[in-house]
Specification:
The complex is a heterodimer of chains A (254) and B (89). Chain A is α/β, with parallel strands linked by helices. Helices cover 32% and strands 22% of the residues of chain A. Chain A contains six helices and eight strands; from the N terminus they run βββαβααβαββαβα. In chain A, strands 1-2-4-3-5-6-7-8 form an eight-stranded mixed β-sheet, with helices on both faces. In chain A, helix 4 links the parallel strand 5 and strand 6. Chain B is α+β, with helices and mostly antiparallel strands and 89 residues long. Chain B is built from one helix and four strands. The chains are: A alpha/beta (254), B alpha+beta (89). Chains A and B meet through helix 2 of A and strand 1, strand 2 and strand 3 of B.
């Protein structure tokens, strides 16, 4: 609830953090002003790169009371316009999973070192970032307290699609998931398909994991992306964001 | 990487981007999310020169039908060109 009498402020800026292998990488940090302590969020960007939508989303999380960091997962692959860098990474087969998990661990440690953070940290991503968020929930050595996977593709990966950069299907790590999981998906999505989401859900049930999945009819891939009119599904997006705020309040706040 | 359908091809040519010509050294070919075309997946071509930085890039995003039609046209015109050159020889 917003109180019109309450003071509000936030600061958002580029910082550097130690990522995988001790590499210094850029990250965008957005946080509410004040002593806190605040819960924190890690945002893992999608295949189009470290772009405006992700930085805007980081500020949105800060507005909702979360210290939020969004690392440039392509920092080692070049600099320039995000989509020019992303085109290069796409041709190379995407960011290596081990490197992404290492970068995420660096960011989580950075967040927990901040005096205005409670220590509770969630992770959220869309598209490839949703897949990476699930991986972090399973493989992070720092650990997270909540995972939000928005239409992460290739969580279920056929063996012939595994590569040196993505050598293990994320679904195979399901037993290691160490945090509650919220998943948001569209029924018209090709990646992940509703059948793949159902397969993932069955694995979560088998392993007795704490999860909630929501499948939206009349929504496809990327239904939060208001800057892609063919992808944006207003009703699903509004409800999806409400589900995220509710989930995070239960898992990270207090 | 949502479809994981992408390849890099080494080529030699020239491309024009941002008011300048540059030597093309690689082409990225993918069937994946486009950046601009309003559809979930597209045939994406990125003509680049990795040695010149990420800005040395000419990007084209096509619908699958248009990409196939274009590929057919390119092959047909290459055949016509080869026949014309053979006729002069």
């Amino acid at each position: 609830m917003t109180d019109t009498r309450a003071y509000e402020g936030l600061i958002a800026e580029t910082v550097t953090v130690q990522g995988d292998g001790g590499d210094r990488i850029y990250a965008y940090l957005a946080r509410p002003l004040g002593a806190g302590p605040f819960p924190a969020m890690l945002l893992l960007h999608h295949i189009p790169g470290w772009d405006e939508w992700y930085k805007e989303t980081a500020r949105r999380y800060a507005h909702h009371g979360y210290v939020t960091i969004c690392p440039d997962l392509y920092c080692r692959d070049g600099h320039g316009e995000p989509e020019d860098v992303a085109a290069r990474v796409r041709a190379e087969g995407g960011a290596p999973d081990d490197r992404v998990v290492g970068d995420a661990d660096g960011c989580i440690a950075f967040l927990r070192s901040l005096p205005y953070v409670t220590g509770k940290v969630g992770v959220m991503g869309t598209c490839s970032g949703g897949r990476h968020s699930f991986l972090v929930g399973c493989r992070s050595s720092e650990g997270v307290d909540a995972v939000v996977d928005c239409w992460g593709g290739n969580v279920v990966t056929p063996p012939d699609k595994l590569t040196e950069r993505q050598p293990v299907a994320p679904i195979d790590y399901t037993a290691d998931l160490a945090a509650p999981l919220l998943g948001l998906f569209g029924e018209n999505d090709f990646s992940p398909t509703p059948e793949q989401v159902a397969e993932h859900e069955a694995a979560l049930q088998r392993e007795g994991k704490d999860y909630e999945f929501h499948m939206y009819p009349d929504a496809g891939h990327g239904f939060f992306y208001y800057h892609y009119p063919q992808a944006y599904a207003a009703e699903a997006a509004v409800d999806g964001w409400e589900k995220i705020w509710d989930f995070l309040a239960r898992k990270l706040d207090g | 990487m949502c479809t994981m359908i992408a390849e890099k091809v080494q080529i030699a040519g020239s491309g024009k981007a941002r008011d300048r010509w540059f030597p093309i050294a690689q082409t990225y070919v993918s069937y994946d999310h486009p950046f601009h075309l309003q559809r979930e997946h597209a045939l994406n071509l990125d003509f680049v020169n990795e040695a010149l930085g990420t800005g040395a890039r000419v990007a084209v995003e096509l619908t699958p039908d248009d990409a196939r039609a274009l590929a057919t046209t390119i092959l047909r015109l290459l055949d016509e060109g080869a026949q014309a050159e053979a006729g002069r020889a």
